[in-house]
Amino acid sequence: MWPCLLLALALLGSVPASYPAPRQPPGVPAGDTTQLHYAVVKKLRTYSGAQRYCQDVYRGRLASVHSAARNQELQKLARTYHITISPWIGAVTSRRAGQWESYWEDSSPWNYANWAPTHPFHIVTTCTTLSVRDGLWRSRFCFQLRPFICQY
């Protein structure tokens, strides 16, 4: 009976416990196996319309940016689509508990920023664009129609 069981397990593709774990992709924190993908959408949407589009079409969010390298990557990606209007990314600046603060809509940590001089605005709630020209971020009124970058 044992030889039959071993043969059945071998045919089913069982793997011994000593088999090495899959390698972690470079740049991904240990334990996080999710790889982010990005899509530049040329359709013009308001910030909230862009958020809905990313969620409905990609099951994702507007892109959050956590490093200079990622910022440059997204800038180059947007350029390849020949976009002339700076696209939305997933940051908002608003007044919270009496203080102005910027935050990522996906609730990820605010650990990197690349604001243009005089930005972000601290007058009203604003949404954020990534310049395809210089890679700097700028505050814009959220009702403007713009292309956008989704992450999923």
Automatic annotation (TrEMBL):
Signal sequence extent: 1-17
Pfam family name, one: Lectin_C
Residue intervals of the C-type lectin domain: 38-151
Any GO BP: immune response
Keyword Cytoplasm found: no
Keywords of this entry: Disulfide bond, Signal
InterPro entries the record matches: C-type_lectin-like, C-type_lectin-like/link_sf, C-type_lectin/snaclec_domain, C-type_lectin_CS, CTDL_fold, Eosinophil_major_basic
Protein name as annotated: PRG3 protein
Source organism per UniProt: Quiscalus mexicanus
Gene this protein is translated from: Prg3
